[in-house]
């Protein structure tokens, strides 16, 4: 049973709790709309987000950023076809502010497509943090674009799956940034010399366990077939509870290329 099923009175509980009180206790905005996008009911978080005087006036599409309307219309189209759309990131202009929200939509009742329940989670702080971080990476990338160094942010796995690399990766590895970032067929871990891959992993894990920075020296296999000696300085990225989210740092070449030995 969905939360709005309960809120709209489809099931009676032995211990009665006000449905509106329950909905208003949520941090997420919750509302129900009909096929014309009219808002049928909403909780206090939506009223605070949209403004108490505007919470139920007009169709929902009038509240969204114009650039996000195609995404919203596609979600509505999927709902009309009986499908449940994937979560959307949409912008909600409120006064002079712009709120980013993750929106999830599903039919309120299992046997008919309308009305639809919507849950909106305000992710504005998260998006702003990402925008600042991306801007910082772009600035750093411009500063080091002409240097044989690679700035990176990677997941903590044996493939060292890259989430970001600077343009210097091409001179260092022979591969473009697009070839290395989030690509299942080519990972930075596959470029590390097989004899060095294990020690590199072990040293990084030991440093992460101590929440300490790390400095490594190892060999990589360049796209041109040569072996390059590189040095890496990095650190872990941690959640507020100490969980390892990934690693970031810089990698640079130590010497001229050495031809790879033939079998």
From TrEMBL:
Q: Which SUPFAM superfamilies does its entry note?
A: PYP-like sensor domain (PAS domain)
Q: Which reaction does it catalyse?
A: ATP + protein L-histidine = ADP + protein N-phospho-L-histidine
Residue ranges spanning the membrane: these are none
Q: What is the lineage of its organism?
A: Bacteria, Pseudomonadati, Pseudomonadota, Gammaproteobacteria, Oceanospirillales
A biological-process GO annotation: regulation of DNA-templated transcription
State what protein this is by name: histidine kinase
Q: Which Pfam families match?
A: PAS (PF00989), PAS_3 (PF08447)
Which residue positions does the secretion signal occupy? none
Task: Keywords in alphabetical order, please.
Answer: Kinase, Phosphoprotein, Transferase
Q: Which terms does the record give in the GO molecular function aspect?
A: protein histidine kinase activity
Residues covered by the PAS domain: 136-211
Task: Write down the top EC class of this protein.
Answer: transferase
Give the PROSITE patterns listed for this entry.
Answer: PAS
Q: What is its EC number?
A: 2.7.13.3
Q: Which InterPro entries match?
A: PAS (IPR000014), PAS-like_dom_sf (IPR035965), PAS_fold (IPR013767), PAS_fold_3 (IPR013655), Sensor_kinase/Photoreceptor (IPR052162)
SMART domains per record: PAS (SM00091)
